[in-house]
Write the C-alpha cells for this entry.
Amino acid sequence: MTPVEVVDIGREAIWVLLKTAAPVMLIALGVGLLVSLFQALTQMQEMTLAFVPKIIAIFIALVVLSPYMIGELTGFMEQISFRIADIGPGSG
C-alpha cells in the first residue's frame, strides 16, 4: 500500500465522519440556539432548560438518522474491505 493510498483512505474516513456526525451536530446547534434565545427573551436562567431539549433532540435525531449513518459507515467499510482484498497475500 502506497502512502498516497493511505492518505486517500484517511481523507475518505474524514468525509464519512463529517457526513455522519454533521446532521446531529447541526440539530443540536439549532436547538441550543433556540433555547438560548428563549432564555434571553424570558430572562429564565434554568440550567435544566439548556440541556433537556438538546438531549431529546439529539436522541430523536439519532433514531431518525441512524439508517443513513449506518448506510454511510457500511459503504465505507465495504470500500476498505475491497481495498484489503485487492492487496492480497502476494502483493506486499
Remarks:
- The first helix runs from residue 3 to 42.
